[in-house]
């Protein structure tokens, strides 16, 4: 909706410029950087200009209407990316306080730029931006209360989901930059240059969002041959999963998860909400409970059953070197620690960058490049540190040192490879610095994901040493 309003405004502005100003916008061009006011003057636009009555009334379309809609456009684009990565994080960050801080930061940044340019409409635009800042907070807070993804959706669990997110973000980024270069710079004459890229980006975006939706709701891993059948007395029942698993699960609770792994020989039965039995290789224990959640032993050679009557009881963790989850998708093994670090890092980065994003971006062009780079690197460093700390805590306690060494070596390999790929993206010629940054970021995430996924797969299941 915001994009449509901005596009219509530019069509009306072009009609005004062609009819009233004879295409000469030099009276405004002296206030703005180069690259503005490249008007569309093709046969369609010329016909519209010739047949539009009272074109003088369209003067308001010059440098004013976008002051109302630039803020919601930027905030919606950022929050859309955040929701694609992690809907649960999106819901947490669309609180009134966070949205108000984001709106204030972006509005102040836009206001400072308005004052720096100081066009004949600066005072009017400052008032419009103040109004936009207030209305946008209420509108986005209301939008944040609406369901944005299927129940239980979270951050990407696999490399495929992460790649779908990266492709979606890169495609949306290109479309926003194309909109900026044409519509927001009053240069509809450059629309034709962006049509091939916009069509390609739109195609990638649709395909990536379709893939992301399919991956997000994919079913649990199939039960291999040789497993004992599952019987259920209630809502959900998952039996044994793995190679040579020989146990079954039966229960009267909401969810019962039996043994999972290679050679597992135990069963799980419960009368509570959730029962998770043994997980791992050679596990020989069972779990039974009457409480809300029962987590049995996890790991290699587990041999002690767990029985609880309280809310939550957890057994021990094993040494698979990967990440295990007992969320809504319990029973699936998530991505390894390398891909998990990328997901956590991007979640932290988007959360930390949320409020100062626009200020840092425009500091590059209107302030100190060094200050902007320092602020950006500080946020990247903090996000990386938080992600590493988070994933390190998820590593198995038994053999954690060896698992951590493998994991960190993989991160170094991924980081070096991704940095080299990003350097290529930064070297790509582009009119706007954002296009180079977008190319660099897309290549960085793509390369890092591929390397981390390959590393995790290669080292999965390695014994602790």
Tell me what you see in this structure.
With 465 residues, this protein is mainly α. Among the domains are: 2-61, no CATH class; 337-459, no CATH class. It has 14 helices and nine strands. The chain has helices at residues 2-20, 26-29, 43-51, 65-85, 87-93, 96-117, 122-144, 159-184, 191-216, 337-353, 357-366, 369-392, 400-426, 433-459; strands spanning 236-238, 249-251, 255-257, 268-270, 274-276, 287-289, 293-295, 306-308, 312-313. Helix 6 (96-117) runs antiparallel to helix 7. It is elongated, with a radius of gyration of 27 Å. The termini are far apart.
Fold blueprint:
Blueprint: H1 2-20, H2 26-29, H3 43-51, H4 65-85, H5 87-93, H6 96-117, H7 122-144, H8 159-184, H9 191-216, E1 236-238, E2 249-251, E3 255-257, E4 268-270, E5 274-276, E6 287-289, E7 293-295, E8 306-308, E9 312-313, H10 337-353, H11 357-366, H12 369-392, H13 400-426, H14 433-459
Parallel strand pairs: 1-3, 2-4, 3-5, 4-6, 5-7, 6-8, 7-9
Range of strand content: 5-15%
**Number of beta strands:** 9
- What oligomeric state is this? single chain
Measure the end-to-end span. 57 Å
Query: Approximately how much helix is present in the residues?
Result: 55-70%
Query: Major sheet, described briefly?
Result: 5 strands, parallel
Briefly, what is this?
InterPro entries: Glu_synth_asu_C_sf (IPR036485). With 465 residues, the protein is mainly alpha-helical.
Features:
transmembrane, five-stranded parallel beta sheet, 465 residues, single chain, mainly alpha, four-stranded parallel beta sheet, 56% helix, 9 strands, oxidoreductase activity, membrane, transmembrane helix, Glu_synth_asu_C_sf
């Amino acid at each position: 909706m915001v994009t449509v309003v901005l596009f219509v405004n530019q069509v009306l502005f072009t009609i005004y410029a062609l009819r009233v100003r004879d295409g000469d916008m030099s009276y405004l061009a002296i206030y703005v950087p180069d690259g503005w006011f490249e008007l569309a003057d093709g046969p369609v636009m010329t016909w519209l200009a010739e047949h539009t009555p009272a074109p003088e009334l369209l003067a308001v379309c010059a440098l004013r209407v976008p002051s109302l809609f630039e803020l919601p456009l930027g905030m919606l684009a950022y929050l859309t990316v955040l929701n694609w990565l992690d809907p649960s994080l999106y819901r947490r960050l669309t609180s009134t306080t966070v949205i108000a801080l984001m709106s204030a930061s972006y509005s102040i940044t836009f206001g400072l730029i308005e004052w720096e340019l100081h066009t004949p409409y600066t005072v009017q635009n400052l008032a419009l931006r103040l109004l936009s800042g207030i209305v946008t907070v209420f509108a986005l807070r209301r939008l944040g209360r609406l369901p944005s993804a299927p129940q239980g959706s979270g951050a990407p669990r696999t490399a495929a989901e992460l790649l779908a997110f990266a492709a979606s973000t890169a495609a949306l980024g290109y479309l926003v930059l194309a909109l900026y270069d044409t519509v927001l710079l009053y240069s509809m004459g450059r629309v034709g240059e962006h049509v091939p890229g916009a069509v390609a980006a739109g195609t990638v975006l649709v395909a990536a969002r379709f893939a992301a939706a399919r991956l997000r709701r994919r079913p649990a891993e199939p039960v291999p041959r040789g497993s004992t059948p599952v019987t259920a007395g209630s809502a959900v029942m998952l039996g044994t999963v793995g190679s040579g698993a020989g146990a079954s699960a039966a229960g009267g609770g909401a969810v019962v998860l039996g043994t999972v792994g290679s050679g597992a020989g135990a069963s799980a039965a419960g009368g509570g909400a959730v029962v998770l039995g043994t997980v791992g290789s050679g596990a020989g224990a069972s779990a039974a409970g009457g409480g809300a959640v029962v987590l049995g032993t996890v790991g290699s050679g587990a041999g002690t059953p767990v029985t609880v009557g309280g809310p939550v009881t957890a057994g021990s963790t094993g040494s698979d070197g990967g990440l295990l989850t007992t969320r809504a998708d319990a029973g699936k093994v998530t991505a390894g620690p390398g891909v998990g670090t990328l997901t956590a890092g991007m979640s932290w980065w988007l959360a930390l960058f949320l409020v100062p994003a626009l200020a840092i971006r425009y500091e590059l062009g209107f302030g100190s490049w060094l200050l902007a780079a320092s602020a950006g690197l500080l946020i990247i460093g903090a996000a990386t540190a938080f992600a590493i700390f988070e994933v390190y805590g998820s590593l198995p306690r038994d053999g954690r040192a060896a698992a951590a060494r493998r994991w960190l070596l993989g991160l170094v390999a991924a980081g070096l490879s991704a940095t080299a790929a990003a350097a290529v993206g930064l070297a790509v010629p582009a009119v706007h610095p954002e296009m180079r940054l977008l190319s660099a970021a897309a290549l960085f995430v793509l390369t890092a994901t591929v390397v981390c996924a390959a590393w995790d797969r290669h080292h999965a299941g390695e014994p602790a040493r």
